[in-house]
Amino acid sequence: MSMVVGCAAYEDGRRIAELDIDKLDGLQARKGRFVWIGLHEPSHDILHKLQQRFGLHELAVEDALRAHQRPKLDLYGDALFLVLQTAQLVEDKLEFGETHLFAGIGYVITVRHGPSASYKDVRARCESSPRMLKKGEDFVLYSLMDFIVDNYMPIVDAIELKVDDLEERLFTATFRRRSIKQIYGLKRDLLALHRAIAPVVEISNRLMRFDVSIIDKDTHAYFRDVQDHAIRVNDGIEYLRELLNSALEANLLLASYDQSEITKKLASWAAILAVPTAVAGIYGMNFDFMPELRSPFGYPAVVFAIVVTCAFLFWRFKKNDWL
Fold first, then answer.
1. Which SS3 state, helix, strand or coil, does residue 206 take?
2. Could you please report the per-residue DSSP string of 221-258?
């Protein structure tokens, strides 16, 4: 069935058999032997079969069937149920999926929903290192977590390139409404990434802290490595969010500065134009007796006074960088 991506048995770090999901009862569980099953958006019937075979908790099966879960770690006796969110850039658009992991003595089951990279490379990498795969179910769990967390790094790097481009355009005329819209889109993507990766830090810590039979103490260092990677990704996200906040603040300051400059120019020209307007208004009144009204030099004198006054105002405003 296409929903079953992979189903194989491993013993002492090596693949010993390809299995049919309908014929798992013949494999006897013992120390050093486990089954690794990969599913992609499985049906209720498939999950029910695995629930009956491995004793999966009904609440965990219900979560894995419905998806749309937040990243979390639940313990059910000697078994654990882990939910992680996956992220991919699809045509420059960020899309999220989910991976649900069941792990217990003798089995590891992965259930993928939505956009997600295939775990075939993880399986191949584990099989190429029998000495590490010999550790068992906990090493498979670490490998899957490490793969998911590491896939966040190229996404953060791609967003960082976009932020760098925005910073270069911040002080240019090309920084317009479209750039503001892009900033909000990037902030939304970063917030979604933060919500997906931040819980991984605590999940890794719990895996190292809890006394779970399938998690050997020798594997704690590997989960600490996953935790370090998650912290690094989270720090990168926070750094980019701060840069985008700074870009928005700088843009607002620049817009306010531009408005202030325009206001000063308008005020300066209004003051200059107010001089001839005021003089013309006064001499436009219908009175017979006004200073220099009938003088042959009255008109040139008034025009000269207007020009000199306007020129003086223009010089003063220019000197004060208002024009």
1. helix
2. HHHHHHHHHHHHHHHHHHHHHHHHHHHHHHHHHHHHHH
Burial class (CB in 10 A: 0-12, 13-18, 19+), 66: exposed
The reply to whether 248 falls in a domain is no
The string of pLDDT tens digits covering residues 137-183 is 889 999 999 999 999 999 999 999 988 888 777 776 655 667 778 88
Return the amino acid letter for 199. P
28: which residues sit within 8 A by CB, 6+ positions away?
none
CATH number for the domain spanning 65: value is 3.30.460.20
pLDDT tens-digit readout, 100-148: 999 988 899 999 998 777 888 899 999 988 888 888 888 999 999 999 9
Q: In the structure encoding, which two tokens stand for residue 213, read together? A: 């039979």
199 within some domain: no
How many domains does one find in the chain? Answer: 2
Range of the domain at 98: 1-129
Residue where a domain stops, chosen among 90, 114, 129:
129
The pTM of this model reads 0.78
